[in-house]
Design brief:
alpha/beta, globular, 397 residues, nine-stranded mixed β-sheet, seven-stranded mixed β-sheet
Length: 397
Amino acid sequence: MEIADFEALLTDEGQALLAELGDYAESAVLALASKLRERHPASLAAAALTQARLRGRAVAKFGDAARTMYFTPEGLEQATRRSVAELRARRYAAAGVRKVADLCCGIGGDALAFAAAGLEVLAVDRDPVTCAVAEANVWAAGFGDRVEVRWADVTKVALTGAARHGCDAVFLDPARRTERGRVFDPAGYSPPWSFALSLTESVPAAGFKVAPGLPHDQIPAAAEAEWVSDHGDVKEAGIYFGPLAGTARRATVLPGPHTLTTCGRPDPDAKAVRRYLYEPDGAVIRARLLGELAEDLGATTIDPTIAYLSGDRLVSTPFAAAYEITDVVPFNVKRLRALIAGRGIGTLTVKKRGADIDPAALRRQLRPSGPHSAVLIVTRVLGAHTALLAQPARMSD
């Protein structure tokens, strides 16, 4: 998108067109393309159609607020989910931060959350269109007096700019994608991990957004690492320094938030499957907090290499899904088919961990049929390839 095309959306004609498209579903918007081009310049019609589609997709990240926000395709993909950005903003506010430099601000998702939490924000990005989109979002949300959007190279603004503009904290969300795909090595981030760490020398209250798979050995000893999941999906990891840091490792589960922190517990011993099986949330696994969760649940692992926990009693927890085990059998397709047929199971959910199977293909092989439902978990138990038939566990009233 060219900046002139985006700015056309902010004119009276562009705003009227966006308001008109907001009343249509995405599938209907596509059908309107030719008619819109008859009434509006082709570039404006194209920009409005793209914006309408992006707004529809952005609802998953931003809720109803997305319907009045502005996006670029890349900006939407990389933007922080609203619930996660609000969690981070509360961390900064609780640490007493007054003004934060939001570096690589993108379309402004984090900047909006910071502003809503009462902070002043200097939002910086090197792409002029992205900056224009971020500024439009800032004003649309009513934070124009609280957020300054600056088009600049963050590596040239951050070290001197944070002090010059009165910032007492910094947040950096480096690009983790290239034309060849995702970047997993922090040295390949843009700007690189080395630049991020250098920020802590001038702004002690620093936070960085990183990929959830960041190797633990690259996390500085003085920092807190937090893995965040939303509705069961791990969304990001954050690394925090100075007054923003608390414990060494933290897993936070949304909605909630519910937080599990490290107590230095080792991974539990591996024992046979008991009555209940717990599937820990991905944030707990990434944060290496199985030992802490196992202690809370009175559980053990079922294999030294598998992140499942098992216990004799059902304990309610936001940090794991729980299943009541009905059958534990060696993995054998023929035997499983007979078991499932005998139970009249027609609705079968197949899960795996540590097993080289295709769940969809296995389900077809088992040919479930009948009025009942079950969960089939294929995994390893004390080194043996094992199938567990289960039901979702429910706490009694």
